[in-house]
From TrEMBL:
Annotated protein name in UniProt: Uncharacterized protein
InterPro entries: DUF3605
One cellular component (GO) term of this entry: cytoplasm
Highest taxon above the source species: Eukaryota
Location of the region described as Disordered in the Swiss-Prot/TrEMBL record: 1-35
UniProt GO BP: N-acetylglucosamine metabolic process
Organism of provenance: Linnemannia schmuckeri
Length: 234
């Protein structure tokens, strides 16, 4: 019968094979087949996101990738992701650019008004260095130039995710889009639809702290189930 010592030995062996700088003490290794939908949901509901972690191999590969970034060109990993991977021109929110901040005395516009009327920069990408999830789940990161988890941005976020995962199904809103906008999103299996949930990591768990982002999980479900399950922010 396996004992606690067996688990410790396995963890120590993995860390030796794949050395990294992250302390996983007290955090159990991920399941062999990846975290299930319910395990992720329970971690969100119980505010125990620290329980979700990469494998030692995954953490090693992530840190190896980080080490290859030219720190003379990019001050931090967030800059590299924004400029190279996401192809953003800068890290500034469109509502904060000079052309939108500058206004005449006759038509003043507050920051709240600008953020309400001007769209942020949003990019949905598959997480290439994730904690492992089961094959039935797709794991994305939504990068943005503002905090999309705020209540003031919630409607915009909900609309964006719906367009990504199920398209525009309202004929009155324009042409029906049968596929999400992100090419990395798998189309739903016939007779199924997309269901998603998301969370924002607390600051101490963020490996990229300089660019706003939320973690999004998607799977196929029966049409009778709700599209969005729930979400959590710190």
């Amino acid at each position: 019968m396996p004992s606690a010592n067996d688990s410790n030995t396995t963890t120590a062996t993995a860390t030796t094979l794949y050395p990294h700088h992250t302390d996983f003490t007290g955090r159990d290794p991920p399941p062999t087949d990846g975290y299930s939908w319910d395990q992720i949901k329970d971690a969100i509901k119980s505010n125990s996101l620290h329980a979700l972690r990469r494998t030692d191999k995954g953490q090693y590969e992530y840190e190896q990738w980080q080490d290859k970034i030219d720190r003379k060109t990019y001050k931090n990993i967030g800059e590299y992701i924004a400029f190279v991977i996401l192809q953003w021109p800068d890290l500034q929110d469109p509502a904060d650019t000079v052309e939108h901040v500058s206004h005449t005395i006759e038509s003043p516009q507050s920051k709240e008004e600008r953020y309400r009327t001007i769209e942020p920069r949003l990019t949905l990408r598959q997480n290439h260095y994730p904690f492992p999830v089961q094959q039935s789940i797709q794991y994305f990161v939504l990068w943005s130039t503002r905090d999309m988890s705020l209540l003031s941005e919630r409607t915009r976020l909900d609309t964006y995710l719906q367009l990504q995962f199920i398209g525009n199904q309202d004929p009155l809103a324009g042409p029906i889009v049968e596929k999400g906008l992100s090419p990395e999103v798998f189309p739903p299996v016939e007779g199924k639809k997309k269901q998603w949930m998301w969370f924002v990591n607390p600051i101490e768990l963020r490996s990229v702290a300089t660019v706003h982002h939320i973690h999004v999980f998607v799977r196929d479900v029966h049409p009778s189930e709700p599209s969005e399950v729930f979400f959590e922010r710190p």
